[in-house]
Amino acid sequence: xxxxxxxxxxxxxxxxxxxxxxxxxxxxxxxxxxxxxxxxxxxxxxxxxxxxxxxxxxxxxxxxxxxxxxxxxxxxxxxxxxxxxxxxxxxxxxxxxxxxxxxxxxxxxxxxxxxxxxxxxxxxxxxxxxxxxxxxxxxxxxxxxxxxxxxxxxxxxxxxxxxxxxxxxxxxxxxxxxxxxxxxxxxxxxxxxxxxxxxxxxxxxxxxxxxxxxxxxxxxxxxxxxxxxxxxxxxxxxxxxxxxxxxxxxxxxxxxxxxxxxxx
Length: 264
Hints:
- Helix 3 (91-105) packs parallel to helix 4 (122-135).
- The protein is α/β, with parallel strands linked by helices.
- It contains eight helices and ten strands.
- The protein is globular and about 45 Å long.
- The strands form two sheets. An eight-stranded parallel beta barrel has the order 1-2-3-4-5-6-7-8. A two-stranded antiparallel sheet has the order 9-10.
């Protein structure tokens, strides 16, 4: 069974230049090494999501402000995490969170996590995205669907997360044909439970499917997460938040495979 669907991208897809999008590390006091690594020269980093407490939190956090400032000084976009909860969160709540991110952390855009995928939700998502763009000049908007949405969403977001899930699914995944109408810079893939031995294969899949922004980790979901935390800790297309909170064991290896890069 082939794990890829050939599209009109053809052989040129193997030339896709890949860089990192970081779905959101743990708090800087907990993950100080991770945040420091992001500003290491030569790391092909496109943007980093700042997720203070499943959103901006209740008050400004000086440690998060310092971490965000270091990234911006290095020319790296910082995005505020907004949880759309597949359309369950109200427009007012999302915009209120966005204002706090701007006031407290001077973010460069937003990651709209658990974004709806269906056609019926397009008008409300468009309303939200239009409002977010009005808050920041040249705002960068990432729609965190986690799977291929209705094609109309590609007209709203700067980037779409069209895969977020385990390696066991990713290696057999198929790309939606409509994505061939857009450049690789529009798509992101987040993969967890990905062993080092399959790193080359995973990079080939991302390039072939036309996704130039990735984050791969060897972390796997833990069965020890209490049930009352699951709903609040879901991010990046349904994966639990702790999957993305630290660097993979092969971070140095994947940085060297991709090569040096610059922020877009």
